[in-house]
UniProtKB/TrEMBL annotation:
The gene is glmS. One of its GO terms (biological process) is UDP-N-acetylglucosamine metabolic process. Homodimer. Keywords: Aminotransferase, Cytoplasm, Glutamine amidotransferase, Repeat, Transferase. Residues 281-421, 454-595 form the SIS domain. Residues 2-216 form the Glutamine amidotransferase type-2 domain. Pfam families: GATase_6 (PF13522), SIS (PF01380). The active site is at C2 (nucleophile), K600 (for fru-6p isomerization activity). It is found in: Cytoplasm. Its main location: cytoplasm. This is Glutamine--fructose-6-phosphate aminotransferase [isomerizing].
């Protein structure tokens, strides 16, 4: 989703800004732009294509300057169109880039229109630009401070103005913004990754902060204009986006990285100990009597999968909530509830909002499961577990999902141990299952050629149903989500027992029904559900454990998985569904890594 890079350098800042945008591309965007101050006036280039094309245009125009701001935009207010792309100008004096959503922009627009401001875009951002212009009296930071005090909603902004050429001002509330410092140069970005080429020193701004960047240094003040101290931190360079190697897309590469990612996330022979989650007191989890899992999209499905583990292994009642619903719903808080926000990016606005909402209800046992150690959700949580998936570039999440599952399983066993429900023998057995997971996943990935053959068939349909039962129902949901995200085929995940209560009406000989069939206690029931589909001539595609005793017959195609892998079986079963979605999308020729309308890091509500 939207990305900001801005800075005041002692050289032409444009290459830094464009490299930063390139690094933020994976978040998803539909337009991009850059503006610099040159010869006493702001100049900009905006593009509806990729950052690569913007770069070409910028070079052709010879756009250069020491002070600049740049942006990738994921449309919210106003269609992806040049006039809505950022940077947005006010009166050719103020230039701004903005992430987030301003909820009261309509009311502000009316007031500003009344004051004579004309609007050239449909964006909420233009309201901020004009508001800053209206308050500007020679001090940009003060004008920004006054302007943002009128905003309701979420924002991260970077602004420059033509009268103060050696100054860039940033502000944030609800959307992330960091300062990067390199000697006399300073930069702003929505993610340190964008600046990893120029610095490893960062200041993470907090909600309400206003940052004033100039060659004289960096000042941070709060919304009252009082100076505040924000410590600079040295970060080991965030890993840059790796090369594709032998793979066609990042998604395929990331699917194949899963055996390594899961073993890094829980190294062999690790202890199931509270210290794994950053808790110094070994008794930290002892009084936990309820779990609340929060997440969006794929992270919500990892929560649904893990609910079964928390209840069966740790015997703790577990509630799963979609972040955007939970934060606006009346709920019953518990003071011994462990609140677990799950997020690959750690920046998802809804999950961050849900976490803060849970905290506002007095629930302060919070533990983030996240793939980014420096993210807002990790910083907002008391404890955390950082998954070791490495950077995930494909918008459709794969290795972030399976490593989240490993983390959640480890948490369930740790809690089970702390509560006396997991004895030493069971603990050893769980550890050995985790240790063998990487090899088991390699065995599943070896099925890719068979899956490609199925993908060619599925690619011809407009609709598909995914079925699973018990702990594999969320895997069916995830399989359907992957397929719709990247191949644009309509897909629904259902608990197989629910089939007869509605979706069976959709089954014809043209409807593919994909089933995830582990050899668990529900297998016989699942087989009956498969028969219900076959009786209506539905085309059944089953991923069945080798010991599930299912084989190819008319109307029934089976790919044999390894033997049943116990409680961790959902992790094995999601891989073929990822591959099926991936190869179906390739067959249909979609932009697999950057599917239309979607973003990797969703920093607005
Ligand atoms: C976006 C991504 C999904 C992800 C969801 C939640 O929609 O495209 O892949 O599952 O956000 O993101 P999070 O970073 O919180 O896991």
């Amino acid at each position: 989703m939207c990305g900001i890079v801005a800075g005041i350098a002692e050289r032409n800042v444009v290459p830094v800004l464009l490299e930063g945008l390139r690094r933020l591309e994976y978040r998803g965007y539909d337009s991009c732009g850059v503006a610099v101050l040159r010869d006493g006036a702001p100049h900009r280039v905006r593009s509806l294509t990729r950052v690569r094309s913007l770069d070409r245009e910028v070079r052709e125009m010879g756009l250069e300057g020491w002070t600049g701001i740049a942006h990738t935009r994921w449309a919210t207010h106003g269609a992806p169109a040049t006039q809505n792309a950022h940077p947005i100008f006010s009166q050719n004096e103020i230039a701004i880039v903005h992430n987030g959503i301003i909820e009261n922009f309509e009311a502000l627009k009316i007031t500003l229109s009344g004051a004579g401001y004309e609007f050239a875009s449909q964006t909420d951002t233009e309201v901020i630009a004009h508001l800053i212009h209206s308050y500007y009296q020679g001090d940009l930071a003060e004008a920004v401070r006054r302007a943002v005090s009128e905003l309701r909603g979420a924002y991260a902004i970077a602004v420059f103005c033509k009268s103060e050429p050696e100054r860039v001002v940033g502000a944030r509330y609800g959307s992330p913004l960091v300062i990067g410092i390199n000697g006399k140069e300073s930069f702003l970005a929505s993610d340190p990754l964008a600046l990893s080429d120029v610095t490893d020193r960062f200041i993470f701004l907090q909600d309400g902060d206003i940052a004033d960047l100039s060659h004289n240094g960096t000042r941070v003040m709060n919304r009252d204009g009082q100076p505040v101290v924000r410590e600079a931190r040295t970060l080991a360079h965030p890993p840059t986006e790796a090369a594709l190697g032998p793979y066609r897309h990042f998604m395929q590469k990331e699917i194949f990285e899963q055996p390594l990612a899961v073993s890094k996330t829980f190294p062999r022979n690790s202890a199931f100990d509270a210290s794994l989650f950053g808790a110094t007191d070994p008794q930290a989890f002892a009084q936990i009597d309820r779990i609340l899992l929060l997440g969006c999209g794929t992270s919500h499905y990892s929560a649904l999968t893990a609910k079964a583990w928390f209840e069966s292994i740790a015997k703790i009642p577990t509630q799963v909530e979609i972040s955007s619903e939970y934060r606006y719903r009346e709920t019953i808080p518990g003071k011994n509830t462990l609140v677990v926000p799950i997020s690959q990016s750690g920046e998802t606005a809804d999950t961050l909002g849900a976490l803060m909402h849970a905290q506002s209800l007095g629930q302060d046992h919070t533990l983030a499961i996240c793939n980014v150690a420096t993210s807002a959700i990790v910083r907002q949580s008391r404890w955390s577990f950082i998954t070791q998936a490495g950077p995930e570039i494909g918008v459709a999440s794969t290795k972030a999902f399976t490593t989240q599952l490993v983390a959640l399983f480890v948490l369930a066993v740790t809690l089970g141990r702390a509560r006396g429900y997991v004895d030493a023998q069971q603990e050893a057995s769980y550890r050995s299952q985790l240790s063998g997971l990487s090899t088991a996943l390699q065995g599943v990935l070896a099925r890719e050629p068979q899956i490609i053959a199925w993908a060619h068939e599925i690619a011809r349909t407009d609709s598909a149903i995914f079925l699973g039962r018990g702990s594999h129902f969320p895997i069916a949901l995830e399989g359907a989500l992957k397929l719709k995200e990247i191949s644009y085929i309509h897909a629904e995940g259902y608990p197989a027992g629910e089939l007869k209560h509605g979706p069976l009406a959709l089954v014809t000989d043209a409807m593919p029904v994909v089933v995830t069939a582990p050899n668990d206690g529900l297998l016989e029931k699942l087989k009956s559900n498969i028969q219900e589909v076959r009786a209506r001539r539905g085309q059944v595609y089953v991923f069945a454990d080798a010991d599930a005793n299912l084989s190819n017959e008319e109307g029934l195609r089976v790919i044999q998985m390894p033997e049943y892998y116990g409680a961790l079986s959902p992790i094995l079963h999601v891989l073929p569904l990822q591959l099926l979605a991936y190869h179906t999308a390739c067959t249909r020729g979609t932009d697999v890594d950057k599917p239309r309308n979607l973003a990797k890091s969703v920093t607005v509500e």
